[in-house]
């Protein structure tokens, strides 16, 4: 039986243990071809021109196409219903998700919203695709959603970008209205997602 020298195995073992200690996702072998942004108006790019949405600006940063599968007003329930058409049928490799804000705004029970999100994540991961979740945090109106995003990421092994609108909301130079960024704000969103997926490109 062939054996490997300790100097070869030890760095790999240390890297694995460090990743586990940091609570990151386990190493994955990605299949599929496309990077897909799946979500609501924050993905669609409401508040900016289509070419300045965060998916469009992310595509520029990474130098490859990014599919924008955002629909304004989408809830987790409606997103789940169109998951096959807009994500699973498009050979997903990396899927960035911004969903839950409309559920929160519409008073949807968080257990229902995050059950839908967990189903979405599980279906995508079943295709050996990486899932990146953009968390939504609304001050004084959170209703425990922030904690649920973190729990979802931990339970599914997804990458988590907490508070995707952090540093944007309340800044008139970065926001089109109280909820939607402008082009400059979407650039910052794209940078946050780029940082998360860069090791997997």
What can you tell me about this protein's structure?
The protein starts with 5 loop residues before the first helix and ends with a helix. The model is unreliable at 1-27 (pLDDT under 50). α8 links the parallel β4 and β5. The chain has one domain: SGNH hydrolase (Rossmann fold, 3-Layer(aba) Sandwich), CATH 3.40.50.1110. The protein has helices spanning 6-21, 41-44, 54-62, 76-81, 83-86, 101-105, 110-125, 145-156, 183-197, and strands spanning 34-39, 66-70, 92-98, 130-134, 159-161. The radius of gyration is 18 Å and the shape is globular. It contains nine helices and five strands, in the order αβααβααβααβαβα. It has a five-stranded parallel beta sheet, with helices on both faces.
- Run of helices and strands: HEHHEHHEHHEHEH
Please tell me what the overall shape is. Answer: globular
Q: Give average pLDDT, whole number.
A: 87
| Alpha-beta classification | alpha/beta
Low-confidence spans: 1-27
- DSSP, total strands: 5
The rounded distance between the terminal residues' Cα atoms is 35 Å
Number of domains: 1
Number of helices: 9
CATH homologous superfamily classification: SGNH hydrolase
Beta-strand proportion: 5-15%
Radius of gyration computed on alpha carbons: 18 Å
The CATH architecture comes to 3-Layer(aba) Sandwich
Mind telling me the CATH class? Alpha Beta
> Major sheet: order of its strands?
2-1-3-4-5
Indicate the CATH topology. Answer: Rossmann fold
Helical content class: 40-55%
Major sheet attributes: 5 strands, parallel
